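Quiz preparation item.
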């Protein structure tokens, strides 16, 4: 049990480090360095956790925004038929909250008129704007709308970078050419073509996606790619819990069976999710560094305190204090250093996280990180676990100096000054 003796003397050593001479001034520096080391370690770990969580949240939100949580398609790459009955079947699976049929195929976009004069290949995506709320929220100019213009041309939405590469401005005409079916034995001399106007542009920061996809209505995509009225390329599913994507995908695969398959979004874009996991893998490294640095920091600081306080420790031992009480004294001292240091570190990290979330002053190259600023996500669980772990670590690290203090010989230290 920790008694008043241990608490009082530990607090006195902590406060007494304010110093009245050179030795006390040095002791003050040692204690402040120990507290500062714990604060830096705790703050660095919390910042790493906040940034990694922020990256994971932002990147996953972008990827899911393009493909939802689960995709149902054919193993053979053929269009899905009897879409209405298939939609009802997958919508009945527990956890599915939205079912979005899509037609996605390769097309050539040709810009003509005004300053537009480019040609590029894209994945033309036929959908309903209501099924892609993430892209609607990231419209950079115009609107995410497929409504016809005054001339009756349907709307087309592309990424800002693709629009610049094609030289397109809002309202410009765009021709989409479909090569689907050419070379497959069908008698067709030329690809199908359909005219659109540029209704809007979007920018998500995922350059590969922004430059790859162009969006039109589901009906226009079916007409361009010669799909039947009840055919789609795939069905995208939104779930009530993103973490259940694989479980729901397996349940759907068991229900519909071959030749159809259901894939969680992690399997659709494995490269990007591997990149996210790579970002998360730095956390164990940071934790390991925190453990090593803090442990050596506390051990070294408390050993210096033991050396500087050797005569006082010998005195209290000579006055009847037990060696176990002296050990507890320095364990309490380590605990107090951990409490103060971890509290300062956590407060600093939370203040920095709040400032970064509000002002975004730490900028990043968007072409490398898919974001133009360091994202922050604060987790109360992370803060609590980190602070508790730091305090426990400091308390355990104090055990070695505590044993050294309890082994001091009172007569020797009093007679010879240590």
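Solution:
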């Amino acid at each position: 049990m920790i008694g008043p003796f241990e608490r009082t003397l530990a607090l006195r050593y902590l406060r007494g480090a304010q110093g009245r001479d050179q030795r006390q001034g040095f002791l003050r520096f040692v204690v402040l360095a120990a507290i500062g080391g714990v604060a830096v370690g705790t703050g660095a770990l919390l910042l790493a956790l906040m940034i990694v969580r922020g990256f994971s949240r932002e990147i996953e939100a972008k990827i899911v925004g393009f493909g939802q949580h689960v995709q149902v398609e054919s193993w053979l790459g053929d269009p899905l038929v009897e879409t209405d009955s298939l939609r009802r079947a997958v919508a009945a699976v527990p956890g599915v909250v939205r079912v979005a049929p899509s037609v996605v195929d390769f097309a050539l976009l040709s810009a003509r008129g005004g300053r537009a004069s480019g040609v590029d290949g894209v994945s033309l995506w036929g959908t309903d704007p209501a099924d892609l709320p993430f892209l609607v929220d990231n419209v950079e100019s115009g609107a995410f709308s497929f409504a016809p213009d005054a001339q009756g041309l349907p709307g087309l939405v592309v990424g800002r970078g693709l629009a610049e590469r094609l030289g397109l401005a809002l309202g410009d005409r765009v021709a989409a050419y479909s090569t689907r079916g050419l070379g497959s034995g069908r008698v067709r001399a030329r690809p199908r073509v359909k005219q659109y106007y540029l209704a809007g542009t979007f920018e998500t920061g995922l350059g590969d996606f922004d430059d790859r996809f162009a969006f039109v209505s589901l009906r226009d995509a079916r007409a361009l790619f010669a799909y039947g009225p009840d055919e789609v390329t795939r069905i995208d599913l939104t779930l009530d819990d993103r973490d259940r994507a694989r479980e729901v995908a397996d349940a759907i695969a068991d229900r519909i069976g071959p030749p159809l398959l259901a894939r969680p979004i992690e399997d659709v874009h494995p490269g990007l999710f591997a990149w996210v996991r790579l970002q998360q893998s730095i956390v164990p490294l940071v934790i390991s560094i925190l453990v090593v640095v803090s442990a050596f920091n506390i051990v070294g600081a408390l050993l210096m305190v033991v050396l500087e306080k050797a005569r006082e420790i010998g005195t209290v031992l000579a006055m009847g204090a037990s060696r176990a009480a002296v050990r507890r004294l320095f364990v309490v001292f380590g605990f107090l250093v951990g409490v103060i240091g971890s509290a300062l570190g956590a407060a600093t990290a939370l203040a920095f996280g709040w400032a970064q979330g509000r002002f975004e002053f730490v900028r990043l190259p968007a072409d490398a990180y898919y974001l133009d600023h360091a994202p922050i996500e604060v987790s109360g669980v992370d803060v609590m676990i980190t602070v508790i772990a730091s305090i426990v670590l400091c308390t355990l690290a104090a055990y070695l100096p505590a044993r050294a203090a309890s082994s001091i010989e009172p007569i020797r230290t009093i007679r010879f000054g240590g």
